[in-house]
Amino acid sequence: MWIRMALGIALSLSVILQVSQDYPSKPVRMIEPFGAGGGPDLLSRALSPQLSKLWGQPVMVENHPGAGSTAAPALVAKSPADGYTLLVNTSAHAYSAAILKNLPYDPLKDFIPVASLTSQPYVLVTGKSSGIATLGELIATAKARPGQLRFGSSGLGTGTHLGVEKFNLEVGIKALHVPARQGDAIADTIANTVAGRTDYLLAPIELALPQIRDGKLIALGVSTARRSVLLPEVPTIADAAVAGFDFPIWYGMWVPAGTPAGVVDKLAMDIRRVLAGPDLRDWVAKHGGEPMSMTQPEFARFVLEESENAQRIIKAAGVKP
């Protein structure tokens, strides 16, 4: 009996090893949820040629925005668990597990976290027409008009939503959440603040930068503990209003649950390898980000911790799942 068990285990290990050695043997799809020009799209298009070169196989980036950034995860969750369909997403994937209760997938149980990628600041912005020029003025205006200011987001439970809920809680203001409409990309959410349809927004810094440079948006503060190299003149929210405030956007990669362990390990190893290379390292720095160096188990624990942090924000803010 024990001999048969040992032989079975050895055979299973040899199969796993062979699968990982052969992977990938055909084109790989990289799915992202926010649309062309969004952070996951830009990062995916920086990663894909490096992985394609390493693997000798095409790595094709596909945009699947919509449903508050949940259309892409839904597609990946239903895909074969073979490592040929990858999800590149933001921290929103971990947060959605805490707030979105009627999803066609479970953000934690239906996926395996593979690799942390990068992190970077958000920037809190308001439209030029708002007449608000500083964080202090935003807070004062919101306190004078409780519940009347509107803040935009790219969807319920995304970082652009929960980051503002965290900010509102810590400065003691109430405002109306206006999430993205069905099919909207992050560019549409930013455009709403430019046009005055929403009063303020926490946006990925690189995506808001053109409107900030054109004077259409006013940058009030960045969301990380340190200033951004892309906006060195803009204070941190921690320095200007809320001591200790630190809420970056981070990016990661997931695969469907059930993907062979050997494939997950190879993906994690290869992604860390290309991120450490000079091309990706320079690209990340140029775009105002920092690499996140975690092992696959460390990233899996990190995702769970971030989901728990989101639950605490949601509960404190009184947001109904």
Helix content: 40-55%
What order do the SSEs take from the amino end to the carboxyl end, as H and E? HEHEHEHEEHEHEHEHEHEHHEH
As residue ranges, the low-confidence spans are 4-16
Principal-axes shape call = globular
Distance between the termini: 51 Å
> Spatial order of the strands in the main sheet?
2-1-3-10-4-11
Strand content: 15-25%
Structural class: alpha/beta
What integer is the average pLDDT? 91
* Overall radius of gyration: 21 Å
Treating each run of at least 4 consecutive H or I residues as one helix, how many helices?
12
Count of β-strands = 11
Multimerization state: single chain
Overview of this structure, please?
With 321 residues, this protein is an alpha/beta fold. The protein is built from twelve helices and eleven strands. The protein has a six-stranded mixed sheet with strand order 2-1-3-10-4-11, with helices on both faces. Strands 7-6-8-5-9 form a five-stranded mixed sheet. Helix 6 links the parallel strand 6 and strand 7 (176-179). The N and C termini lie far apart (51 Å).
